[in-house]
Amino acid sequence: MPEDRATIFAAGLLLPVSSPGIRDGALLVRNRRITGIGTLADIGRENPDADVRYFPHYTMIPGAVNAHAHLGFRRKDAPEGGTFSGWLARLIERLTEKEAWTAEAARDSAREAIEAGTTFMAESSPYGECLPQLAESGLAGTVYAEFFPHELGTPEEAVEFIVNKVRKLREGLPERVDAQVSVHSPYTVDPESSRLAARRTRAEGGRLAIHLSESPEEVEFVRDGTGGLTDIFGSNDWGGVGVSPVRYAQSIELLAPQTVAAHLATRVSEEDIEILARTGVAAAHCPRSNEFLGCGVSPVPQMMERGVRVGMGTDGLWSSPSMNLFEETLFAVKLHGMNGATGLRLATLEGARALGIEAETGSLEVGKWADLALVEAPPDAEDPGREVLEVAANGGVAATVVGGNPIYGRISDSTR
Ligand SMILES: [Zn+2]
Fold it and tell me: CA 92, CA 249: separation in Å to the nearest integer?
């Protein structure tokens, strides 16, 4: 195959995240991957034939990695928040009505994410229903197919079904789009189906997404077998095991380095954090959804201190105000009192680490895919990390590039 002509993407400030910022920095991109990084002067001189796209008034950063999202929701007519079980009950009542617009919502959600600088999306949807919209969006990403065993027979039959379903979903996908299994939650998937799915996906080298310790109601269901979720799922009788959701998830083998656990928002104890660190499971932090649904605050600084990998997730538009991961991250930065550089890292490289794809994306380094965003942040900002988060959170993403391919742009560079 002939090599693509090289392209140089350059900006007034380049923030690779994995290494210090470069004024008038440039990436050399060939065959969709980064093959060089340095100053525009050096990279330009060494590659005189490359096509140069230079944005002197912008800051170039890695694209956002959304570690937990649902595409199939829309901003309008969201169920009322306040309590998780109340919100979920209203959501379930409307599942049939929702079928009519899920695909359109998924397209719109993906578009919104792209226009906010997202390049990789970890999406969870029932039986992978939003995979077509993710695949056609231009994003790289993984759709985690949720399954609900009570619809599928015995635990063995349920797991066989979802594993085969995911195998079929993988056929004919774009190069960087993938499907995996999700064990939806401790209150919707019984312990035996959960354990079998976890073992099976790990044996096949797959990854797993779960929701965990999201709400006070989930904590009560797992510990006592009572509360708001028992009212919704009356026939789900495996709760009341007297331990925390994290400890329960460990006992049914869900926690492992290949698993990303969303939320961890409610009553995650020191002992729970110890289990998370020991098992190597990653976390996806969705603070705006947690606030909307009355789910508390995830102990993210403590988890990070113990070495738990934490990425950011927007969740979906029925529990969150936008699909803008930088806006989500800015919220987290304020919530936890983090600095801008840590925030930018959470939104990009840490998300990739949480999903086990840090060798491929999440920072601007030689060998990785050229996944980047151009932000209207001035190159001479005092705190560049904070500045790009603020600007990107407020609609200031001017271009999004996935694997060297611009999938969104509303600027022209200075070289043409
Ligand atoms: Zn979720």
Answer: 24
pTM (2 d.p.): 0.97
Q: Classify domain 7-62+363-409 at the CATH superfamily level.
A: Urease, subunit C, domain 1 (2.30.40.10)
20 CB neighbour count, 10 Å cutoff: 9
Please tell me the distance between residue 222's alpha carbon and the centre of ligand 1 in angstroms: 18
Tell me the Ramachandran region of residue 171: left when phi exceeds 0, alpha when psi lies from -120 to 50, beta otherwise: beta
Q: What is the pLDDT of residues 359-411, one digit of tens each?
A: 999 999 999 999 999 999 999 999 999 999 999 999 999 999 999 999 999 88
Question: Which class is 64-354 in CATH?
Answer: alpha beta
* Domain spans of the chain, in order of start: 7-62+363-409, 64-354
Q: Which residue has the tokens 């001035």?
A: 378
CA of 185 to the centre of ligand 1 (A): 9
CA of 73 to the centre of ligand 1 (A): 11
C-alpha of residue 96 to centroid of ligand 1, in Å: 19
Q: What pLDDT digit, counting tens, does each position of 76-89 carry?
A: 999 999 999 999 99
Q: How far is the CA of 78 from the centre of ligand 1 (A)?
A: 15
Question: Distance between CA 38 and CA 392 in Å, rounded?
Answer: 24
User: How far apart are the CA of 396 and the centre of ligand 1, in A?
Assistant: 26
In total, the chain counts a number of residues equal to 416
